[in-house]
Every structure is written in C-alpha cells, then in structure tokens.
Amino acid sequence: MxxxxxxxxxxxxxxxxxxxxxxxxxxQKYSALVxxxxxxxxxxxxxxxxxxxxxxxxxxxxxxxxxxxSEPVPLAYAFGCLDxxxxxxxxVCLSEYSSAVIGVDFxxxxxxxxxxxxxxxxxxMVDEADLLAAVKAAKPQKKV
Length: 144
Fold this sequence. Notes:
This protein is an alpha+beta fold. 17% of the residues lie in helices and 40% in strands.
C-alpha cells in the first residue's frame, strides 16, 4: 500500500495538499492540518482562497464540538488532492483561520485512510476487505 507521509507538529498531523480552482492547473501547495473532527472537504484561509480565485457560492453552518452552531461559513467549489495524486472536487470552506485543514470528506472522496504514529502521520489507500479483516481481527474475543 502506498501512502504519503506527513509530520507531527505540537501533537497535530500535517500533510501536503494541492488545491486548484478547476482541477487542471498545477494547483497551490499547502501544508494542511488533518482534522478528523472536521466533516468538511478542505478549509482554506480567506486570503489563500482569494489568491486562487475561489468565489463563495453558498454558506453553511457547522455544529461545533461544544454542540453550538458556527456562524455561516462561505463555501466555494474547488479541487484538492494529496501532493502527487489526482484531483477530486469538493466544497472548500473559506475560513478566518490561518492554516489549511483537510477533513473527513476529503479523506472519503480521495479514498484515503489515516495512519498515525508517535512521530509521523501517513495517509494512503487501503483495500476495504483488508481494512474490515483488520478491524475484525482487532475485536476482543469472548471468553468461553
């Protein structure tokens, strides 16, 4: 199984991604936080999205970890991928935060899983049958 490795910085995993407005141009490279608590595709700082030429088409509100709803977040269509992979389309959040973030929708659309170690992070493809077999094998066995 091939995977892309990233780095752990202050306990947070980062990987390199490319974002493109049309999926054709080379795309802009970002070091993105891998956030499995973020259900969205990609979140980019507003200035980065503006430089890419992204324009918000709609807004959405997200339920936060504390149960409250966020303020409306602008969304734009764009394409993203891990550096070296093929682009997939999704909705990019235009954020006030200063760094790029990838969420669960990015992982699903890309067909990727996350591997987390003590000093690094990897994102790669895995065969679903192999994954299900590993999960089944990891379940505690009942004592007879």
